[in-house]
Amino acid sequence: TIEILFSKRIFLTMESQIVVFCAGALDCLEVELKGSKDFSKLCAGIAILGYIASVSDSINSRAFSQLLRFLGHRYPKIRKASAEQVYLVLLQNEGLVAEDKIDKALEIISETCWKGDTEAVAKLQRFELYGMAGLDTDLIRKTSNRVSTGNRSATITDENASYSSLVDSSGF
């Protein structure tokens, strides 16, 4: 799979085409992962986003932005997997977050309980990370659900309900 090819650093030898390839991969990932309930597909996509965000080209900020979006995902395991990738990317690629904010960003990633905290807390931490990375926070507001608009009771559900949805969709 593409994840294995990234892990073997095969694509990094195609220096002249890496930006075009990664842009295409990001476009495909955005379509494939949007609204997906397939846990293995989401985890593989997050790993690929981590590889692309680690590339030191102009495309890495787009991949990093997509990784940060997964920090607000409704499934806690997906939030945790994304947080692990964000942490690794921040350690590998110093240009994504300002040097004076990198320690705070790493602290947020490592001290937030992504598997246990509610989705609303995760989204607040994600919003703060977006600001630290200098990314457009309007993207979050447009794509986030009603939690940010104040209608908390309609969207914040029990953590077990989201797992129930995941289990139902995977056929168990």
SSE blueprint and pairings:
Layout: H1 2-7, H2 18-33, H3 39-54, H4 60-69, H5 76-92, H6 102-111, H7 119-133, H8 138-143, H9 152-155, H10 159-169
Helix pairs in contact: 2-3, 3-4, 3-5, 5-6
Could you state the order of secondary-structure elements as H and E?
A: HHHHHHHHHH
Per the principal axes of the C-alpha atoms, what is the gross shape? globular
Estimated radius of gyration: 16 Å
Structural class: mainly alpha
Q: Name the helicity range.
A: 55-70%
Number of helices: 10
Report the sheet with the most strands, covering strand number, pairing sense and barrel closure: none
What would you say this structure looks like, in words?
- It is built from 10 helices and no strands.
- It is mostly helical and 172 residues long.
- The protein is globular.
- Helices cover 65% and strands 0% of the residues.
- About 11% of the residues have low confidence.
Short description:
About 65% of the residues lie in helices and about 0% in strands. With about 170 residues, it is mainly alpha-helical.
Features:
172 residues, mainly alpha, 10 helices, globular
